[in-house]
């Protein structure tokens, strides 16, 4: 099982990969892009993902938002720019938080957006501190998803919204003879994936009243394919680099394989990309 320290190590040691393949310094996004008929570029697809979550969560200027697993702050900046809501982002990665806070100063929005190093399953915030808990491709890292959902419920005001975009198993009892899911998770410091149905039930069992799930698998297919091609292109470079740098970090050493595994699993129908909205 991957620990919180492992997850932080993954993001700290692979950030340069996202800078290269995801144009992180420009896009400020580590997530998959959602493509629709009018999407002309990968940058637009990445913004679409934020836009989809923004719409489902019905965020307005009066809301206070917690970005749980905020990366380098892209979603928080997007939410604030689009709706004027105040956003607080948290992450296990000190490297991500340092960069995000540097950008806050550059944008001069210290009174609107902030970031802290914190575990989203055990935060230090008071009960009912937020109107929205936003989690884009971060809950997959929680080995116990129930801990995250329970904490999100505690943090939300009555009528508050939890919005999650993530990777979900197509079926809890499915056969994966090539172990694509397990191999993918090992390259990303993900201990386990669960189905969207199980996630919905956990939300219900923790007190959420209204729960809706939306399937965006077709819309992220192009992003998954992009990752696959990146893994093939980067394989030779990575293998060569690893040979001459045997002390390279464990996640950086195998990170290129993640694009291959996730795409093979997707083509085999083993996972779906879904958005879940749960209202307290």
In short:
This protein is α/β, with parallel strands linked by helices and about 280 residues long.
Can you tell me about this structure?
- 49% of the residues lie in helices and 19% in strands.
- It has 280 residues and is an alpha/beta fold.
- The protein has one domain (4-173, 191-218, 270-279): Rossmann fold, CATH 3.40.50.150.
- Strands 3-2-1-4-5-7-6 form a 7-stranded mixed beta sheet.
List keywords for this structure.
19% strand, alpha/beta, 7 strands, Rossmann fold, 7-stranded mixed β-sheet, globular, 280 residues, single chain
**How large is the count of helical segments?**
11
Number of domains: 1
Query: Which architecture would the CATH scheme give at its second level?
Result: 3-Layer(aba) Sandwich
The number of distinct β-strands equals 7
Fraction of helical residues: 40-55%
> Biggest sheet: strands, sense, closure?
7 strands, mixed
User: Which fold name is given in CATH as the topology?
Assistant: Rossmann fold
- Shape verdict: globular
Alpha-carbon distance between the termini? Answer: 30 Å
What is the CATH class designation?
Alpha Beta
Low-pLDDT segments: none
> What is the average per-residue confidence, as pLDDT, rounded to a whole number?
97
Order of helices and strands: HHHEHEHEEHEHHEHHHE
Give the strand order of the largest sheet, numbering strands 1, 2, ... along the chain.
Answer: 3-2-1-4-5-7-6
